[in-house]
Amino acid sequence: MGCPPTPLPLSLECTLRPFLFSSSPRHSSPSSTAFFSNTSTLSLHKSRALPLLKLLRHFSSPSAPQPVTPSLLDSSPWPGAFLGPDGLQVLRDFRVTVELDHGGGGGSGGFLEIRPMLAEELDATAQLLAESFAESVLVPARYVPLLAFLVKQYVAERRCLEPHVTVLVGFYRERGTEGAAQLACTAEISFDARGANAAPPSPVPPRECPYICNMAVRKALRRRRIGWHLLRACEELMTRMKTERNVYLHCRVIDKVPFDMYQKAGYKVVKTDGFLVWLTLQRRKHLMSKELPHEIG
Fold this sequence. Notes:
alpha+beta
């Protein structure tokens, strides 16, 4: 099973969409957005520039809260913070290494290592998420650096909630090559109610249950099963952290390839958005769930 062609960072979508699609006198109806018409690239540039600049000013103004990048993994344990008796150490030590064949993506295959994100990897992770988000909502490429700035604030704030939240990253090295591995994928996991996102997508998942979101795979490395192994790594970490066994994620109704992958992994649809969600300028989504085994094989 290849990884999804368009990974969807849905929590980021809920965070940024009100600014990306805020209306103006010339764009006052949902039909003027890219989700409801074949808007030209020029129109997209005009309609989204002002909301994005407003959002940039909000985050860069002196009164706006600035991110604090250190997490609990960078400091001493916080009594009572982790989910199991050894949860914080489990998060520190988590590593998954997978050998990949060439699959449908070409090349000679390689090795993928998945682990929690380090502070110095924040910029690269934000860039990958910004590129994926821009692709999924048809934001012009010229705005990706601005999106990366905004996404960095989001990821930094989420990382401060560790160990209730973690951001996993995967690094891929082509077989037979030298040099540093490249960032290939990322995903966010909230483990419990203290780590639950304040504005989750609809249908809303239970706050006390683990939740996977913001999965992204670098475009040049898709169709190598990286998305599949990233999903499996998320499940393995949740099992080791001794969370609730029912895990949730969202998948847009239009995204057949990710939907098929989630179904193959054992996820089932719990609830689906009604058509009225279009009034909020969002695509309909499935809320999917799976009961994790006691051990991941």
